[in-house]
Design goal:
There is one protein chain. This protein has one domain (3-104). Helix content is 8%, strand content 21%. It has helices spanning 54-57, 95-98; strands at 9-13, 40-44, 62-65, 83-86, 89-90, 103-104. It is globular, with a radius of gyration of 15 Å.
Length: 105
Amino acid sequence: MKAGGHSQFRVGFSADFLDESGSLVFPDVGLSLFDGVAGLSNEFMKQYRSEYLPAQLTTFDVVISLKPRVAAHSLEGVERLCAIGRIWVYASSEPERNSGGIRIV
């Protein structure tokens, strides 16, 4: 049993990690790190909103987020969530700095 009495530690990714067809927007966000880890699961949120609703956060232990904002009301009644990780994406105008792509830091 994991913290909080849950059998799985659940990681949620904001819906904007996926495009309209359900494919990853970025080629590798580290999903392979979840493979074969007992008690750990991940899921992409079904709906994109510019600001999270509590219902989007309530089933996750951790959320990894691109654009959506977290407001005080986003956390109302949310008891399971222990962390939110923000990923910042930038592209450099200097080709040698970004290797021709977008970096996730």
